[in-house]
Amino acid sequence: MRMYNVYIYILVMAVVTYIIRALPLTLIRKEIKDKRIRAFLYYVPFATLSAMTFPAILTATANIYSAVAGFAVALILAFYRRGLLTVAIGACAAVFIVELLPL
Amino acid sequence: MTSKSGNFLHGLKNGIPICLGYLAVSFAFGIQAVQSGLTVFQATLLSLTNVTSAGQFAGLGIISAGGSLIEMAGVQFVINLRYMLMSAALSQKLRPSEKTLHRLAIAFGVTDEIFAVSVSRPETLSPYFSYGCIFISVLGWAGGTFLGAFSGEILPQRLISALGVALYGMFIAIIIPPARENRKVLSVVLSAMIMACIFRYAPILKEVSSGFRIIIVTIVVAGAAAVIFPIEEAAENANV
């Protein structure tokens, strides 16, 4: 059961995200010197993307075997520094192939 | 090329690879958006107004779970907090006298990929270069979402299942290369994954919604890392 109209959610998302992007560009005209803030902001994307990816990826496909295969292929391709597109397609291909197997 | 149109065309050209990458990933997003109960129009509008992969992805979960607006705002704030660093870095690339209107327009297109292209330019950043890059990238992002949302229902289930990992694949492609070279980043990645697992499966903790789980893990792990591993300025590169 949805609590709010979808458009309200979209509006909140767009406004919050835009404010984050716009404030520093318009207000900060000097370099951020505080090393703790710089370090924190530097680590944020890694912590966020990691927490979003695992363990959620394990339940993103039809079964756990294909999910593990997709995860493994993505890790390997990323380790060898393939681009975003290659890694994403490689993971999808691995899932697709494993799901064709009679497990 | 210093003219406005020259800079715009240059930005367009630099944005082509971003556009192609976005097409594939946003296609998967469009499929998932429709599966989460959004219409094709809502999904496309969401991509057009947000232009953020991780944020939109987490947002879908909150929408389909009927989460509160506070939770939504908090999740978007924390997940997209990295754009603050990028926005701050980009402000250093502009002429100090650059008009506020240009700054506000450039801000719309601060994403991981567009930032990486913009900040790696040797010279001062022209707003028109940014506009070219943003235009074609957003076209790919919103267009791919539309196509995915529109065609998702006629695609075979097998293909949809396979595309379900596309966004995760992109996230992995962003976090693994730096983690490979930097042990501090690697420990952040591993700690966040372990902590997310604990929150997902441990009693009581598993009651925490997925959005707040991401907020808590991010603040705790990135905060601890900032205290334990203060980084040298040289360690920050554009490919965040």
Question: How does the SSE layout of this entry go?
Answer:
The complex is a heterodimer of chains A (103) and B (240).
Chain A: H1 6-27, H2 35-53, H3 64-79, H4 84-100
Helix pairs in contact in A: 3-4
Chain B: H1 4-35, H2 40-50, H3 53-65, H4 69-79, H5 82-93, H6 100-108, H7 112-119, H8 127-151, H9 157-163, H10 166-181, H11 183-201, H12 210-228
Helix pairs in contact in B: 1-2, 1-3, 1-8, 2-8, 3-4, 4-12, 5-7, 6-8, 10-11, 11-12
In short:
Chain A is 72% helix and 0% strand. Chain A is an all-alpha fold. The mean pLDDT of chain A is 88.
Task: Describe the protein.
The complex is a heterodimer of chains A (103) and B (240). By secondary structure, chain A is mostly helical. Chain A has one domain (6-100). Chain A has helices at 6-27, 35-53, 64-79, 84-100. The longest helix of chain A is centred in the N-terminal third of the chain and has 22 residues, at 6-27. The relative contact order of chain A is 0.07. By secondary structure, chain B is an all-alpha fold. Chain B has two domains: 4-163, no CATH class; 182-235. Chain B is globular and about 60 Å long. The mean pLDDT of chain B is 86. The chains are: A mainly alpha (103), B mainly alpha (240). At the A-B interface, α1, α2, α3 and α4 of A face α1, α2, α3, α4 and α5 of B.
For this entry, give a set of tags.
heterodimer, A: about 100 residues, mainly alpha, about 0% strand, B: about 240 residues, 2 domains, about 75% helix
